[in-house]
Amino acid sequence: MDYELRKWEYSDGPDLIAAADDPRIARYLRDIFPSPYTEKDALQYITYCKNTPDNLEFCRAIVIGGHVAGSISLLFMHDVSRKNAEIGYWLATPYHGMGIMTSAVSELVKIGFEDFDMHRIYAEVYAPNLASQRVLEKNGFIREGCFREAVFKNDQYLDLYVYSLLRS
Ligand SMILES: CC(C)(COP(=O)(O)OP(=O)(O)OC[C@H]1O[C@@H](n2cnc3c(N)ncnc32)[C@H](O)[C@@H]1OP(=O)(O)O)[C@@H](O)C(=O)NCCC(=O)NCCS
């Protein structure tokens, strides 16, 4: 399915809420991603993206058929970690399993390495999140390690996997 990555707009609010207000998405994300996802949350996130320069966090909306259906970003690290970026993403459930995120991650990896001169792009994934692990593996990411029960999400301890891809 065709999709586009573009900068966030204030007018994306209603589409963002419709896509993001879903516990099946929130269960695999940090608690900073709210559930339920309200109008206030959407405004706060879009405002953050619009006010944050690309070289601090490269945030893009995933747009399908003219409507926001997800989000992807590269968060750039500092100091001795300054050649590292953390990739994060989610997609509305009706579009899962169509290869969209595999392709979007591939696009962002290229941007991170080529436009921002990163050396390492990494992701933190909760152990039950097999779809995300597959997306990363299809993009050549390697599972570096497991932080045992490092995550406390929805009243459960979960193992945290770190995946990374080095610039070749
Ligand atoms: C993770 C996520 C972004 C994947 O997006 P997507 O566009 O559906 O991903 P793709 O279609 O590109 O690839 C998904 C792959 O996972 C596989 N998959 C999906 N569910 C799976 C499961 N339960 N077990 C094993 N593999 C699974 C698919 O078969 C596919 O692999 P394949 O191409 O080899 O068949 C989406 O599921 C999502 O938004 N999840 C909630 C938020 C989230 O987890 N974000 C990432 C946090 S690290």
For this entry, give a set of tags.
7 strands; about 170 residues; seven-stranded mixed beta sheet; Aminopeptidase; alpha+beta; binds coenzyme A; globular
Describe this structure in words.
The chain is α+β, with helices and mostly antiparallel strands. It has one domain (4-123): Gcn5-related N-acetyltransferase (GNAT) (Aminopeptidase, 3-Layer(aba) Sandwich). Helix content is 29%, strand content 35%. The chain is built from 5 helices and 7 strands; from the N terminus they run E-H-H-H-E-E-E-H-E-H-E-E. It has a 7-stranded mixed β-sheet with strand order 1-2-3-4-5-7-6, sandwiched between helices. Strand 2 (57-64) and strand 3 form a beta hairpin. The chain is globular. The structure holds coenzyme A. Residues 25, 28-29, 89-91, 96-102, 123, 125, 129-132, 134-135 line the site of coenzyme A. The site of coenzyme A has 21 residues, from strand 4, helix 4, strand 5 and helix 5.
Topology (elements, then pairings):
Elements lengths: L3 E3 L6 H8 L2 H4 L12 H13 L5 E8 L2 E10 L7 E8 L8 H15 L5 E7 L3 H9 L3 E12 L2 E11 L2
Parallel strand pairs: 4-5
Antiparallel strand pairs: 1-2, 2-3, 3-4, 5-7, 6-7
Helix pairs in contact: 1-3
The protein binds coenzyme A.
Brief characterization of the structure:
This protein has 168 residues and is of the alpha+beta class. The protein has helices at 13-20, 23-26, 39-51, 100-114, 130-138; strands spanning 4-6, 57-64, 67-76, 84-91, 120-126, 142-153, 156-166.
